[in-house]
Amino acid sequence: MKILFFPKTFEKLRDVIGPLLAGHEMEVADEADLEDRLGEAEVLVCGPLDVGEALLKGAPRLRLVHQWGVGVDRIDLEACRRMGVAVCNVPSGGTGNAEGVAEIALMHLLLHSRKYARCQESIRKRRLFSPQGVSLWKKRACVVGLGNVGRNVVSRLKGMDMEVRGVNRTERESFGSLGLDGFYRLDRVEEALSGCRFVVLSLELNEETREIASGAFFKAMEPGSFLVNVGRAELVSRRALEGSLESGHLAGAGLDVFWDEPADPDDPLLANPKVTLTPHVGGVTDEALMGVAQTVADNISRLERGLDLLNRLDRER
Prior knowledge:
By secondary structure, the chain is α/β, with parallel strands linked by helices. Helix content is about 30%, strand content about 15%. It is globular, with a radius of gyration of 21 Å. The chain starts with a strand and ends in a 12-residue tail after the last helix.
């Protein structure tokens, strides 16, 4: 089968992906030649890409759109369903993706709590024993969103002897094994934030969660607290975040997602010492690469053999 990868960054992964797709034809496209290459493709493996009816009409042989990762918010599932194209993604848990995102959340928490920017200043000024940091140990944290990523964040924070509250739209029996110090449904999120020095957002983006972190959310956070967002940028109202940082109510924000990606290097928020930003690399690790690649390759093999696809999303619910 002809497997088309988008975008061009997949070219760097050819040595990893190629052996898993032995017997298939692997091609990599960028925006300039995507339309031309789609005509012969039977499988499209993509990162962030708008997949709708217009694109699908130019791909008459296409049988499967496989997201490289979890998020399919830019794929029109209904259009794919109408045109007989299967859509699959890669679950974050157990593939290295959720585990990696949890690690980047922890990194941002530590960069802020141990005042990394000021540490660099102390080095430049040849100062020792400054600044005084904020220990995660014994502090209360709130993890908003208990999917695969959120559960991995919780386990890591509990491993640092933090008191951890969890927030989710629904309560699940599996949450009992997390050792949460409190569970709150999403409509009680502001109550859950009370007394929490650290807050991690790991929610899916939908109309209910869009800009859930806005004025009332930030007011409910403790003065001097820290926010880390590893979900979607649109979970946070940028205006409300900037206002809370400027007033000093929020001590810092760590972001692995941004409203306009890739972020403009000249964006003033990037120059704010209270903000740490990583370029959406939470799930970009050696383990995640192999885990995601193997899952995609396994599904392509299942497609070729006529077996049911795993993690299929275009079925009627």
